[in-house]
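Long-time lurker, first post. I've been practising inverse folding by hand and with some scripts of my own, and I keep getting stuck on stretches where the structure tokens seem ambiguous. Below is the full token string for one chain I'm working on. Before anyone asks, I'm not after the true native sequence, just a reasonable design that respects the backbone. If someone could post their per-position residues I'd love to compare against what I wrote down in my notebook.
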């Protein structure tokens, strides 16, 4: 998967979350938390791709992964309050896949870092 494809995938995920929040009846506080973390995933990944250094890239990738994990948390809260919601299940699946991708990037960065020592 190219950087551009992953950026597009993160963007699509953010748009899907925004559209879901628009039609859902979730508590305003949870909606705000979900929107902030979900849209931050792609924003931080995009920033990573435009990083000024390897250290800056690493930091942005860690933040993107952290925001993705927070997003999954909020989606699980929603799932437990709206148990039969297929869209929430799809969003949880997609963010879980994105977390795995970010973790693979982190692992690669850590391996390269070890190789440089």
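-- Answer (accepted) --
I ran through it position by position. Result:
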């Amino acid at each position: 998967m190219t950087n551009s494809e992953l950026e597009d995938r993160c963007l699509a995920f953010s748009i899907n979350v925004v559209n879901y929040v628009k039609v859902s009846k979730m508590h305003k506080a949870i909606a705000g938390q979900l929107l902030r973390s979900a849209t931050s995933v792609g924003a931080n990944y995009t920033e990573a791709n435009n990083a000024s250094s390897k250290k800056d890239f690493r930091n942005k990738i860690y933040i993107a992964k952290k925001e993705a994990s927070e997003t999954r948390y909020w989606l699980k809260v929603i799932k437990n309050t709206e148990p039969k919601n297929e869209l929430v299940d799809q969003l949880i699946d997609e963010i879980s896949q994105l977390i795995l991708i970010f973790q693979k990037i982190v692992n690669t960065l850590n391996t390269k870092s070890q190789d440089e020592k």
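A couple of notes from the structure itself: Helices lie at 3-23, 28-49, 54-81, 86-116. The mean pLDDT is 93. Happy to go over any region you disagree with.
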